[in-house]
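Sequence in, structure out.
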Amino acid sequence: MTDPTAHEMTDEDKRRDQLLRAEGSTEADAAPRITVSDGDGVTRIDIADTAAVRPGPGPGVETIDDAGE
């Protein structure tokens, strides 16, 4: 009989597996996009410096602040 815990995947393994299932996906698709740090009872979630896509308007996109409104 096999050990049932031997085939259990960590949350990170499950995330990576799901992201790499798509046809044409690469290791870069599974790269972490956030960093999580804990301290003084506070959890901080930041966009990773290595993230290929970041939230917000892209470069060269005018925003309301840029338009002076």
